[in-house]
Fold these 4 entries.
Entry 1:
Amino acid sequence: MKRQLILSSALALLMTGIGYSQDFSTEINLDLPTTTISFDEKEYNFGQVEAGDIVQHIYRFTNSGNEPLVLTNAKGSCGCTVPSWPKEPIPPGGTGAIVVEFDSKGKSGPQTKQVTITANTDPAQSIFYIKGEVIGDPPTVVENTPKSARPAVKFPVKKATYEASVYPNPTIDDFWLKVADADGLATSVEVYNGTGQLVDKKEVSAWEGQLQMDARSFAAGTYWLSLKVGDAERFSVPFVVGK
């Protein structure tokens, strides 16, 4: 009976190991041809926020290889980073974005959090960071506080050469994008949804004050405009679509 129990335990361990190996091989896309991924930035510093604030940021990337790019996983170094990522393959030359959220609840002082994505690249994993400082004492958690009560999300705009704004924000149909001091410059405008999928794109050969855009086909939620003005560094601006 004892010998049978040992054999059964060994078999269970073997099956567990096989299952783990299968999950791991699927996660790192061993069966897919590899490509390359290029990020606009691999570190974002949100500066200072008050304890309890929630910060969101996008990390724009490009499939710089010759095969479709498939992201299979994205993990934060702890529960305070909640990444979302495109679930559809990104074609060669195509772009996408990783949406990362940092919840400063219960945090205090300098913060550096790591996000790791897994894709059919070599190496299979890419790492980037969100960092900053949380000011003030961590808020006291009251047991009878409704779970639905959340502090307002802060959407810090990456410091850029040009100042951009969206109005109305939130919007339900047409909206306007205004970029100050960009007149006459070539401007690239990309729109990403909350999971980092590219949903609209416009190329303006010579900017003229503002650009009218249409959000009527967008589902309700948070979106990001990724802008490149002239030769300046690309930056992002959030807006909300309501229905």
Note: Confidence is low (pLDDT under 50) at residues 1-26.
Entry 2:
Amino acid sequence: MSQEIEMKLALGREGPEQLCRHPLLQDRPGATQRLANTYFDTPGGELEAARMALRLRRCDDAWVQTLKTSGEGGGGMSRRGEWEWPVSEGVLDRAGLAALPPMAALGTEVLERLEARFSTDFERRLWQLEHGGATIEVALDQGEIRNAGRAVPIRELELELKAGDPAALWDLAMALAETISLRPADASKAARGGALLSGHWSLPEGTDDDERLHRALLALDAFEDTGEDRWMATARETLRDLALHGHREAGRLAERLARPDWMNAEFGRTALQLAQRLAP
């Protein structure tokens, strides 16, 4: 098992182009990959309920199977367990899964009922930076999450710590937010695919300040995938509540959400400042 430490950032429509022009990246060579992924769960969604994600990924001619578990974090930052190994072409390795403690805890019946649930297809551009004394992989993902003829866009940035202090992720995110329309995002591709499949987004109640921010960010994720105004209203209401608990940045974010052009670099910088202060 390895431990994945990363920051996930949602990008505005102009965000990918702005990223590629950023001084930290524009003169650096980057690799490009085409990634096709199939996510698995039981018909009853038992992996999702256990906050696990299982996928088969094809990159060029190689297949990799990955199991991820939930972990600590919020405000775009996460630290979670990850098991990854090569497999035969497009075939789920159930025996390998059975040997992993998180899957063993669910029982063999769950393993037997695993089936393909939804897919993601996206292009990934990769850069590796030395920043703030840390080695960080910068990944720009653009594509779609698809299920049963429905699709939602993928337009996100992942900053993954390869070596060094996790604080460097916050520092790099703030540097990028100076000119790029981005914001912290708490919904993984797996969670978004599950919501697309079920038609249901689940939000935490938000009794502590960090949980309130988590609720607001998930509501924004839901709004951008569904276009439903109720999710925007939830995000604004939750941020106003957070402002009442002494976090003035949350009030500014709530005010900004009243505008149709709310997603910009200023919004992202303010959201990152608040997220870093409230990070568990």
Note: The chain has two domains: 2-187, 201-280.
Entry 3:
Amino acid sequence: MRTISGLYSILLACLLTTLPAISEDFSSNTLPKGWKVAVGSWKVADGVLVGSEQPADHHPSVLLIPDPHVSSKIHFRLRFDGARAFSLSYNHSKGHLARLIIAKGQAMLQMDKDKNDPESKPVTLAKSAFTPKPGEWVDLGSTIKGTQFTVTLGDITLTGSNPNLAKEKTGYRLVVSGQSVAVDDLAIESKK
């Protein structure tokens, strides 16, 4: 009896650690509770999340997804529908930390500059040629574990490392410059 109970406990623990903390297919056609539009237009329509920069804002469109964590995996499908650029950004309690940037025919992992330090500059961790095809879905997976930052984007993989990546993060920011991007089938697994 102890063996079955012990196996059940192990199986339950494994299931709980592999289930996404956040899983969203946008079938409800509403923005998930707790997600916040900081700038621009973000709406759920026809079962996908659509972000668009608004010219009057003079700033890229930004959506905040709260999820305090140290390490995490986020995966979603992404479609460019006229956007010039897209970023998946990680913040910490004092501001911007790191991001994936897709723009100008490349994908790049970058540590952000410290806005409180005038000597600070962005640091490129990795980059690769990448031009999304308008209207086509691409799988995007991003993992930060300890000091490692790894992104898969379609068939390319970017990996970089920085000691500051081990900080606690407040969540994610989806950032769009230009017309729009669509996001679908988003899943997040995270650990404090």
Note: The radius of gyration is 18 Å.
Entry 4:
Amino acid sequence: MRSGVLLAAMLLSWAACSITMGDDLLEERTESFSLEQGGNLSIRNVNGNVNIEPWDGSVVEVVLTIRGNAGMGIPEGFETKAVATPSSLSYEVEYPEGPNTVSVSFIVRVPRELSLNVVVELENGSITMVGPHFVNLGTSNGSITVEGAAGGDGAETTNGNITASFTGFSSGMTLETVNGSIRASLPADAAFSAETVNGNVTVEGFNTTASSSTGVTVQGEPAAEIGTVNGNITVDVIQASVSGR
């Protein structure tokens, strides 16, 4: 696991405690975009959840919901920036200096057969991603759920659980948390190492080449790293069919 991650966890937890936000609906809007097969989707935000799901529409639909304190409203300097081309869609949320008083959640509906390269970077929020995408997902305080991904760099959080299923596999993929458990479903030919410090590792359906209660290795290439500090890890073989909501 990456060095310094425990210190980062403590600092980010302190930062999260300093945030004072309301839960009043301040604004909601829906935006639509056309994206090519294999295009890029990226979202960078500080406060708020991201939900990416398949639908039967022909375009990518994004629903942004801004919440905060109705008496304070949306602060000056707060902005959601979208940059779109046929091959790329990116959102970045800018906050003014000082305590954060608003949050932005994203619901992104992607045409069912469209496969994208998805990058999500959050600080305080959970991520749910369903669909045949290549994923690079990260948050500091929140859980991550991945269903039916085709591969990618994987998913990392500091305080939260990871639940992930992958129909494909990418070299160097990482599933990592500090305070949370991990449950992963991977292709039958996947190679990986799984390790926890305070917890147990359970592997089902794979031939392990090194195994203990807290660490398991399945040899071969490509290899993935699955790890947590405080939590259990369970890895099994993905079933032939994956739910598409």
Note: Residues 146-240 form one domain.
